[in-house]
Amino acid sequence: TQNIYILAIESSCDDTAASVMLNGKILSNVVAGQSIHEAYGGVVPELASRAHQQNIVPVVHQALKKANVDKKQLSAIAFTRGPGLMGSLLVGTSFAKSLAFGLDIPLIDVNHMQAHILAHFIDEDGFEKPPFPFLAMTISGGHTQIVKVNSYFDMDVIGETIDDAVGEAFDKSGKILGLGYPAGPEIDKRAKLGNPKAFKFTKPKVEGLNFSFSGLKTAILYFIQKETKANPDFIEQHLNDICASIQYTIIGILIDKLKLAVKETGITHIAIGGGVSANTGIRQALKNGEAKFGWTTYVPKFEFTTDNAAMIAIVGYLKYLEGDFAAQSVTASSRLKI
Ligand code: KG4
Ligand code: ZN
User: Does the ipTM exceed 0.90?
Assistant: First the structure.
């Protein structure tokens, strides 16, 4: 059989990433983060696209070198078309188009949100692939969705956030507490050392399978303002308990919606993806769901949770097998839907 080499490029937000895949297996997965945004407490789009321009050539070179693959061996170039920040997407899109044109090989456009889900189909020892249909919950700094996945490219979004993404709930809560950006990983770390029931935050009331996180952020802000007025050292004295309580509330919101989605669809196979699926509390809650609710859960390898190009490569590979290529006239699309 033919060997299919895919070079994939991801540049939708603040990570410049490239990956080389051979027949569904990852040969290299390179990510260059952008620490410049830490000083601003969030991603600054203009700085992100400039950093992508600086990083993209070295990142692609490194991915090819690590994979020990020459660009002349490549079968196709896959790239993230959207959704994401327009300036960031344009860098990856233009680069991929030029490279595919120069090498005279197919170009494959990839939807970033589909990629977070299809990351589960990367060939990886010890990781099982979910059977169709399954439910996917994509939780990141930009998105919060529950998707019914009927097949590789037939997906229905059955629930999503009406305001902030779950990653923003972590990051904005962290900002209130004076933690660095992004705060998700630190809240996770501190939550392990705290009491999740120390403080109670009410869960939002949102119909059906949709989510809302902006009210929680406001509730946390008022709570902290009130407590620090009475005791200026409140945050310092209770930081681990506060983090544990915030994380406990967020996990409760996610698990409640998953339970409802299972009830409505009758599907008990659940996969998670996106940066927030790195959270140890969420991983544990899902595992508990196996015994408690009869779920079968799928958690991706850590390096495929936050933004990466390996997930773009697997979509590129699946589309290559179907002969689903993009024209040279393809353009980036910041609001691309699943
Ligand atoms: O998927 P991702 O890398 O980028 C987006 O597409 O947004 O997700 C980044 C988000 C950030 O909000 C970050 O705080 C969150 O994922 N995150 C976490 C953890 N690791 C990353 N949130 C909670 N716990 C973690 N361990
Ligand atoms: Zn993402």
Answer: yes
